[in-house]
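Whiteboard transcription, Tuesday session. T.W. wrote the structure tokens on the left side:
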């Protein structure tokens, strides 16, 4: 999309139209986005098979995954608020960074509920996912985290879908707990932010 924007003299509308044409055919269109979206469904189905294969492991460890997901949702807000205060970030910018640990579709309603900037939030989510996918397992190795569930919870809780996808081939055993964790963590945060006094408290942290 960015390359298309450059080639089309900065015309974002034309770049997006070229990215996903929705013109029909086997892949739904001829743009790069059409191909990407066409491949998304098989990828989700493949992850579903992996989840089913490890269903007993996931059932036995549902409490650690629930706990890790809830803690991630709370600490992500706390650490972001602290960092924003220390660096004196504007309130809107700080609030826009709160959802960086949450996959983008779940981040959108949170951003809207707190009045943050969706563009900045989307960028933060993408950067967090890329950083987690690139360095997450290396950091876990450095600190000696070997347990499958612990590694999965850490990857899913901090780098959501991108982190989960990054370990699907290199460490397939941790991708199911990672997937469950990033879904639970995002769900917890969305649910928390729908409670008025919690939402107001979070907004006040960045005031």
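and on the right, the sequence the group agreed on:
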């Amino acid at each position: 999309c960015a390359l298309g924007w450059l080639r089309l003299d900065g015309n974002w509308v034309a770049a997006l139209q070229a990215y996903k044409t929705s013109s029909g055919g086997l892949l739904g269109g001829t743009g790069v986005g059409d191909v990407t979206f066409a491949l998304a469904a098989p990828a989700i189905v493949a992850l579903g098979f992996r989840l089913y294969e490890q269903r007993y492991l996931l059932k036995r460890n549902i409490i650690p995954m629930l706990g890790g997901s809830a803690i991630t949702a709370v600490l992500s807000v706390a650490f972001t608020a602290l960092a924003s205060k220390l660096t004196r970030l504007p309130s809107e910018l700080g609030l826009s960074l709160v959802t960086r640990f949450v996959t983008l579709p779940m981040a959108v309603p949170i951003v809207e509920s707190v009045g943050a900037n969706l563009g900045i939030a989307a960028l933060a989510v993408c950067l967090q996912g890329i950083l987690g996918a690139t360095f997450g397992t290396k950091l876990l190795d450095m600190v000696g985290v070997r347990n499958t569930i612990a590694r999965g919870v850490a990857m899913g809780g901090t780098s959501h879908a991108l982190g989960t996808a990054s370990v699907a081939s290199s460490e397939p055993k941790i991708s199911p707990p990672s997937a469950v964790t990033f879904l639970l963590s995002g769900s917890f945060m969305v649910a928390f932010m729908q409670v008025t006094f919690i939402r107001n408290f979070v907004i006040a942290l960045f005031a």
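Someone added at the bottom: Residues 1-10 have pLDDT under 50 and may be disordered.
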